[in-house]
């Protein structure tokens, strides 16, 4: 029965979203766009490196950006 259910689900998913910036899995959380405070690029939350800091959640495009932020968080926080 799982195959049938999968078929039904795939038909129920809207196929538009032509404004989607990139091809990521069709999931509301994964598709949410976030901004990397270090390099300023936007990326899908599901692809980002997530770091919690205080009450904030920060997203980075790469380990490199995360480490840059860790080295100088104030520099980038003003910019976020
Ligand atoms: Zn970055």
Q: Care to describe what's here?
A:
The chain is α+β, with helices and mostly antiparallel strands and 80 residues long. Helices cover 36% and strands 20% of the residues. The protein has four helices and four strands, in the order H-H-E-E-E-E-H-H. It has helices at residues 2-12, 28-31, 63-71, 73-77; strands at 33-35, 42-44, 49-53, 56-60. A two-stranded antiparallel ribbon has the order 1-2. A two-stranded antiparallel sheet has the order 3-4. A hairpin with a 2-residue loop joins strand 3 and strand 4. The longest helix has 11 residues, at 2-12. The protein starts with a helix and ends with a helix. 14% of the residues are buried. The mean pLDDT is 80. The site of zinc ion has 8 residues, from loops. Residues 36, 38-39, 41, 60-62, 65 line the site of zinc ion.
H and E order: HHEEEEHH
**Stretches where pLDDT falls below 50 for ≥5 residues?**
none
Largest sheet at a glance?
A: 2 strands, antiparallel
What structural category characterises the helix and strand content? alpha+beta
Q: How large is the share of residues in beta strands?
A: 15-25%
Please report the total strand number as a whole number. 4
Nearest-integer average pLDDT: 80
Through-space gap between termini: 48 Å
Helix tally? 4
Helix content: 25-40%
Please tell me how large the radius of gyration is. Answer: 17 Å
Strand order of the largest sheet: 1-2
Bound molecules: zinc ion
Q: What's the shape?
A: elongated
